[in-house]
Amino acid sequence: MHTATKTATSSAVRLDEVRKTYGRGSAAVHALDGVSVELPVGSFTAVMGPSGSGKSTLLHCASGLDRPTSGRVLLGDADLAGLKESALTKIRRERVGFVFQAYNLLDALTVEQNIALPLRLADRSYDRRLIGDVVRSVELDVPLDRRPAALSGGQQQRVALARALVTRPDAMFLDEPTGALDTRTARTVLGVLRRAVDRLQQTALMVTHDPVAASYADTVLFLADGRIVDQLPRQSAERIAERMSHLGEW
Ligand SMILES: Nc1ncnc2c1ncn2[C@@H]1O[C@H](COP(=O)(O)OP(=O)(O)OP(=O)(O)O)[C@@H](O)[C@H]1O
User: Fold this and answer.
1) Does residue 178 line the site of ligand 1, with CB under 6 A?
2) In the structure, what pLDDT confidence band is assigned to residue 249 with cuts at 50, 70 and 90?
3) Is the pLDDT of residue 92 over 50?
4) Domain range 11-249, CATH architecture
5) Nearest C-alpha to atom 4 of ligand 1 is from which residue?
6) What is the dihedral of CA 36, 39, 45, 46, to 10 degrees?
7) 58 Cα to the center of ligand 1, angstroms
8) Atom 17, ligand 1: which residue's CA is nearest?
9) Interval 16-30 mean pLDDT
10) Is residue 7 over pLDDT 60?
């Protein structure tokens, strides 16, 4: 079982010189071109960059959804490079939480069953108190026996957040989590995410195009052509947008 207490000094995720190349020879695309980054436990990091800069590839390599061509990825104490597919699947299931733009909830299951799904897949026992805790942490106030389709977009994304947090993962990976929401709902969900990350001391890595979303993060990484070209500590949406608009000039 992985409910390890998290120490303030260790890193939850670490990438050393990660490269990911698609194709070969003159057709080769260097989606990641030597990325090194460390996410401290309890930190919230946003990744921004132009289309094709490698944001999704970074998220996929850091979370074990994909393997780098070279370099090292450490998730907690696990070195993902050396793992067989079955071990990697187990780690993704038990030690990583995912949230995508499309909420990816199962409508055949109730809200409670959706949230508990990662625990059931990991054969972990749980009680309603655990589910109640995570539901409160995402400030979700709906009957838990509802089907997801009966909920608003913002509520569905809170269910997805709860599902990602329920195992208390080493790291949570979010790909455009507010991309399908209107501006007001997006801000509410980002506030919920920020508070949940703080309360639970979770580590989160979020890919986004939206400077407002990135303004909720402790650190904003800027990618261009597969490299981290800059990073900023927590920043207003205006300053982040400004940096984005000058990305090619660095
Ligand atoms: N499976 C693949 N096969 C070949 N090339 C790929 C593959 N996946 C990504 N790429 C290429 O790698 C580069 C980085 O892609 P990636 O999807 O990581 O960028 P991104 O910053 O997430 O883009 P977007 O903001 O448009 O989602 C792009 O040039 C893309 O075309």
Assistant:
1) no
2) low
3) yes
4) 3-Layer(aba) Sandwich (3.40)
5) 22
6) 20
7) 10
8) 56
9) 94
10) no
